[in-house]
């Protein structure tokens, strides 16, 4: 329990430092773009390599991949049904915010600090299914409703998924692991050093992107999005936590993963599809704040 609360305090202080650095004009939000590219393309893939290069993938871990994918499909369909009467573009914007979780930036720093590589292993397996939802399903929803008479271009979506370095790192390491091959020791040594930067950089980036300027006109739409995300997530998370006949770490993963913030990819999607970027940014910020509080409360109850 002490380690759990200590990690939350440390994480909160690093996020606060990132926010203060932005407010003091030492760093700007545009600097966060370069930092985000560094995290997603270098430190996060390094952490994935270090964690997954030698793990034994059993059926229970594979079940997490399936859960991450299936849950994303279910909640995406539910969201589109609830927003079915919305104007087309609004339906697309709201719909793409429902599926997908911010695991790489938000969950990994906390999980790494509390449970170490064991926690990363479990959340990483869930993130494989989640990544397909984030870079596939969420993108398809945003793309399809952005304009009238849009024809879904699956080749374009597949290409976008193929350009996701974290997702491709998962796939490559997964294949290497299943074939019984091993990476050179030099690769593991280098990635091990680089991976240590993932936690502080990710938390600083969350602070840099944090914004408390909200427009009142957004509350209704954002309230519906967050209500679906956290209402459904808590329901299925608690159901899985109490009913699934699995080990504790698996149960923690299911419960916590389903109440994580929305994926950071929704921000570039809103730019690409010309949706209301301020609305999307506000929703993403609020989901970070809500998830942080929920994880602290729930964590003190279960850990």
Automatic annotation (TrEMBL):
The chain crosses the membrane at residues 6-22, 34-55, 61-82, 94-111, 123-146, 167-185, 197-214, 226-244, 250-271, 283-302. Pfam families: Mem_trans (PF03547). It is a multi-pass membrane protein. It comes from the Bacteria. Its main location: membrane. The keyword Transmembrane helix applies. InterPro entries: Mem_transp_PIN-like. The keyword Cytoplasm does not apply. GO terms for biological process: transmembrane transport. Keywords: Cell membrane, Membrane, Transmembrane, Transmembrane helix, Transport. One of its GO terms (cellular component) is membrane. It is found in: Membrane. PANTHER family: AUXIN EFFLUX CARRIER FAMILY PROTEIN (PTHR36838), TRANSPORTER AUXIN EFFLUX CARRIER EC FAMILY (PTHR36838:SF3). This is AEC family transporter. It comes from Niallia taxi. The lineage of its organism: Bacteria, Bacillati, Bacillota, Bacilli, Bacillales.
